[in-house]
Amino acid sequence: MPGNKNVFSSLAAWRRGVAQRAVHAGWDWVRRTGAVTADRPGRLRFGAIGEGTKLAFPQGTVFGAPWIRLGAHCIVGEQVTLTAGLMPDLDLGPDPILRVGDGVVLGRGSHIIADTTVTVGDDCYFGPYVYVTSTNHSYDDPHTPIGKQWPRMEPVEIGSGCWIGTGAVILPGARIGRNVVVAAGAVVRGAVPDHAVVAGAPARVVRTWCAERGWEPPLRTPAPVPIPEGITPEQLLALAELTELDGP
Questions:
Q1: What family does the database annotate (predicted)?
Q2: Strands 204-210 and 196-199
């Protein structure tokens, strides 16, 4: 009997392995098929979606698509919410409400809520679970539930080349300059100058750059050495192997 038990256990393990591989293969097919591109928009009819842009499946909540313009070569992660207008099926006029530039990466689970205009410049990178909104709740009337009071709306602008850290919140009226680093978990409102680093809740400027003095306060780590031109992927792999051999 012990021999038969081992046979049955091996057969059960084999069946579980086959089922697992089938599930993974099926899910990979679903993700590929459900992804949205300019050539395969599915049910979504964006105002524009650029060449090479892809929305991973499963998508988050998307409505007001005709008033959303996505640039070229963007990567929109899974479960990213993109909305234009307060609710679906509104006529928002002739102009786009949400503009996303070229080469933008929106991390998994991020939200951009554009009840009024939100603009994201080129080559911005968002970590996971970033929240951008042009709307805030009002609480002027102390006798009416806050959720029933008409919200306040202010446009949001995020300049080109920014890095928005995981879990950051960009509030209505924020005007973020070019090449700004927003630290993870920061809560940003108001104006942020170009070439700054902001952190905290509420966010404050913790580092700035100017042409005469460089970064203030100075960076604590040396700048990364760029890869020389002409280096091939094969040479990089060989260098990585040598580094591992020389390591401790």
A1: Belongs to the transferase hexapeptide repeat family.
A2: antiparallel
In which element (H, E) is residue 7 found? helix 2-34
- pLDDT tens digit sequence for 156-194: 999 999 999 999 999 999 999 999 999 999 999 999 999
Q: Kindly state the average pLDDT of the residues 207-214.
A: 90
Spell 119-128 as b/e; 16+ CB within 10 A means b. Answer: bbbbbbbbbb
Task: Judge contact between 33 and 10, C-beta under 8 A.
Answer: no
**Is 31-240 CATH 2.160.10.10?**
yes
3-class secondary structure, 162: coil
137 in active site = yes
Only one residue has tokens 């050495």, namely 225
pLDDT at residue 244, rounded to an integer:
53
Domain ranges of the chain: 31-240
SS3 208: strand
Whether 8 shows a pLDDT value over 70: the answer reads no
Burial 28-52 (b: 16+ CB within 10 A, else e): eeeeeeebbeeeeeeebebbebbee
| pLDDT bucket at 5, cuts 50 / 70 / 90 | low
User: At residue 157, what are phi and psi to the nearest 5 degrees?
Assistant: -130, 130
Tell me the whole-structure pTM to 2 decimals.
Answer: 0.84
